[in-house]
Amino acid sequence: MSEHSAPSPPARILVVDDDPTVAEVVTGYLGRSGYAVEHAADGPDALLRAGERRPDLVVLDLMLPGLDGLEVCRRLRETGPVPVIMLTARGDEEDRITGLEVGADDYVTKPFSPRELVLRVESVLRRSRGAGPTAVRTVLRDADLTVDPVTRRATRSGRELALTLREFDLLAYFLERPGAAHTREELMKRVWGWDFGDLSTVTVHVRRLRAKIEDDPARPRLIQTVWGVGYRFEPRKDGGAA
Q: Contact at 8 Å (CB) between 188 and 199?
């Protein structure tokens, strides 16, 4: 065995944007940051490239000709987990929320700082490689829920849950702190790593997570709303850490 291990290959990032200027700036900054960058100018080309060789992360413009970013995101998520950062116009809050609901892990609003985008990419990739905000290294359990922060696998009644990166981190954060009430600002800072931002991001992810772990998402038993505060994970008596 060699004394020195081989260096890890650079993360592969697919940038999907039909604006040549934006695409050139984004691919340039990401390339200079050490990533292997590929560009697609429309949705069908993006899906084709992702199908041929799955990227480690996709930077996806919302407004694309023919097949828009929301549909591209949906189809990417159908084929398996892949981190997605969506580029949106500043005033399109409804579109940003819809993007999060179809599975985007993060978003950046235009006009944006290329350096901010690079930082967001770094943050999402760290989480996708098992370096999320959770410090607990034991398997977390609550009744039929099991979350392994090391392998980043979550199951319910033995069946693996299809969680996005942020959904996984949010569930792990709740399980680590059963019974505690959390503000949306706290969740944004601790789970997303943002000191400020659109708090509806947290609301959307809680709603998505409830749909995947609650028996009746309309009457949540596990993730409860604490009016005037935020949310609380209510453990069941047979839950706990392994």
A: yes
CB 189 within 8 A of CB 179: no
Give the model's pLDDT for residue 197. 66
Taking the domains of the chain in order of start, what are their residue ranges? 12-128, 140-241
Overall fold of domain 12-128: Rossmann fold (3.40.50)
How far from the centroid of its chain's Cα atoms is residue 57's Cα? Answer: 10
| Six-digit token string for 134 | 């959770």
The pLDDT averaged over each successive group of 10 residues in the chain (242 residues) is: 59 93 92 94 92 92 87 85 82 71 80 85 77 60 86 88 87 92 90 74 90 92 93 74 43
Provide the whole-model pTM.
Answer: 0.67
**Pairwise CA distance, residues 227 & 181, whole Å:** 10
From residue 78, alpha-carbon distances to 75, 102, 103, 164, 227 in Å are 5, 10, 10, 12, 35
Phi (first) and psi of residue 208, to 5 degrees: -65, -40
What's residue 129's pLDDT?
67
Query: In this structure, are residues 11 and 57 in contact, taking their beta carbons and an 8 Å threshold?
Result: yes
pLDDT of residue 93: 67
Class of domain 140-241: mainly alpha
